[in-house]
Specification:
Blueprint (H helix, E strand, L loop, with lengths): L1 E4 L11 E5 L2 E5 L26 E3 L5 H4 L2 H7 L4 E5 H25 L9 H7 L3 E4 L5 E5 L2 E9 L7 E7 L2 E5 L23 E5 L13 H17 L4 E4 L5 H14 L9 E3 L1 H16 L8 H5 L2 E3 L5 H7 L5 E4 L9 H9 L6 E4 L8 H5 L7 E4 L4 E4 L3 E4 L8 H10 L4 E5 L3 H14 L4 E4 L5 E3 L1
Parallel strand pairs: 3-4, 4-5, 5-6, 10-11, 11-20, 12-15, 12-16, 13-14, 13-15, 16-19, 20-21
Antiparallel strand pairs: 1-2, 1-22, 2-3, 7-8, 8-9, 9-10, 17-18
The structure holds zinc ion (2 copies).
Length: 455
């Protein structure tokens, strides 16, 4: 099998892996990079040359996995796109929002090529999608050749899947982004108990050991205590969160804590628009699929308001009383509501900014975590140098599995080859070293961008 990682950088980047499986030309995911803009954020589609893609297998609806799907499908209209039923429900809202953000960035940042696709391209996608049920295989044919695809629950976010591809005598297992523990709103990954030839694995947390005694549930408790103490002290809390998945999980954590009287009952809670809109989709999915525990009555129960502030000066005026802001982006990317609220509350020691997910080191969220109280931090797009007074804290309740868990589950499949993707240098190195030690007969492929590997 030939593999080419079309992600241009050795990091999270824009997930997109080309695989030639028998006569089938397959893409695993079609993302955009959260750190880049314009054409630069796309995978290296030019490396496909004249290759005609037969199948696009979509693991889940985070933009680093689906952000370039309409772009490539406009150019590969014969391809069929396989994704879970839940992803099929969520995808249009995620992509439509992406078009709005690109339009805004075109005007504000002068990125002429934005939007990279139109709403009509998202609509056109619909006719190519084959929705998949978890655990139910689908056989696809091309001439005399056939391939079998099965999706498995991957935890992580609603609709997320790990994907098994079987062709003749060989099997390939693509992990996508995976979480084994149960979230409050979604049960954890359920991988098949079987042997596979090749595992293509995410490596996001490869460089993040979990300190002894630091479990996700301890960290959740610590977050609740931080929210309670900050509000009691007359401050506000900002929790930067991905609008899809993380935001709803945090709302559920708040809801559970209120039921147990661990949090004040009347503190105003603000959410950003996309996260609020997705609540509707999650409710629809929860009614139809097992394993999802999230209903839209939470908006009434928590009296959630949609946050509409853009100008940091206006935001300051708007914060009349201690409030909880659960806003995107999770990495505090410039010009997002989380970024703007951070700039408005960071100079007051009563406030707190609580990170609850992965932040790439080069994003404002990743950078801010390296600073301490009293340091100055530049909000670049506002040209505002802020003195950090608010409490900045990080809570390890990641939506990605711990590296040891992923490794253990990979080894359970006794693969002949393991392919490392979707992680930074140190993260891949950890997996490489562990695999060499624990499974010396396994071949390990650490994919370089755009290089063809025969696996
Ligand atoms: Zn993801
Ligand atoms: Zn990802």
């Amino acid at each position: 099998m030939q593999l080419i990682d079309l992600n241009k950088t050795r990091d999270i980047g824009s997930s997109c892996l080309f695989a030639k499986v028998g006569s089938f030309n397959v893409l695993f995911d079609c993302g955009t990079s959260p750190k880049r803009v314009g054409y630069d954020a796309l995978p290296a589609f030019d490396k496909l040359g004249t290759t005609v893609i037969d199948l696009v297998l979509v693991s889940h609806c985070h933009l680093d996995h689906v952000g370039s799907l309409p772009y490539i499908m406009k150019r590969q209209q014969q391809a069929r796109v396989l994704m879970t039923q839940a992803s099929h429900v969520i995808l249009p809202r995620i992509l439509n929002n992406c078009v709005s953000v690109m339009q805004l960035q075109r005007d504000e940042l002068g990125i002429k090529e934005y939007p990279l696709y139109a709403l009509s391209d998202i609509e056109a996608l619909e006719q190519h999608i084959l929705p998949m049920q978890f655990g139910k295989s689908r056989i696809l044919r091309k001439g005399d050749d056939e391939i079998t695809i099965t999706f498995f629950e991957a935890g992580h976010v609603i609709g997320a899947s790990s994907i098994l591809v079987e062709h003749k005598h060989r099997s390939i297992f693509y992990t996508g982004d995976v979480l084994f523990r149960d979230l409050k709103i979604l049960r954890g990954a359920k991988w098949p108990a079987r042997k596979v030839d090749t595992v293509i694995t995410e490596t996001t947390r490869g460089s993040t050991p979990r300190p002894k005694g630091c479990s996700a549930s301890n960290e959740t408790e610590r977050l609740v205590v931080t929210i309670r103490d900050t509000i009691n002290g007359g401050g506000s809390v900002l929790i930067p969160a991905f609008a899809f998945g993380r935001m709803q999980e945090i709302l559920k954590i708040i809801s559970c804590a209120r039921k147990e009287n661990k949090l004040q009952q009347t503190t105003p809670i603000f959410c950003s628009g996309l996260g609020y809109g997705l609540i509707e989709d999650f409710d629809f999915i929860a009614k139809k699929l097992s394993g999802v525990n999230f209903r839209k009555k939470i908006t009434k129960e928590l009296k959630i308001k949609i946050f509409r502030g853009n100008n940091p000066k206006d935001i300051k005026k708007q914060i009349q009383e201690p409030s909880i802001f659960v806003l995107s982006s999770g990495m505090l990317v410039e010009n997002t509501s989380a970024y703007n609220v951070a700039s408005a509350i960071i100079d007051d020691h009563k406030n707190a900014i609580c990170f609850v997910g992965f932040c790439d080191e080069s994003t404002p969220g990743g950078e801010l975590q390296k600073y301490s109280t009293g340091d100055s931090f530049l909000f670049k797009t506002q040209n505002y140098m802020a003195k950090i007074a608010a409490k900045i804290d990080k809570f390890d309740i990641s939506g990605h599995a711990d590296r040891e868990e992923i490794l253990k589950n990979i080894l359970n499949m006794s693969p002949r080859a393991v392919v490392l993707v979707h992680g930074e240098e140190n993260s891949r190195n950890w997996f490489m070293d562990e695999l060499i030690e624990l499974s010396p007969n396994t071949q390990i492929f650490d994919m370089n961008p755009c290089e063809a590997f025969l696996v």
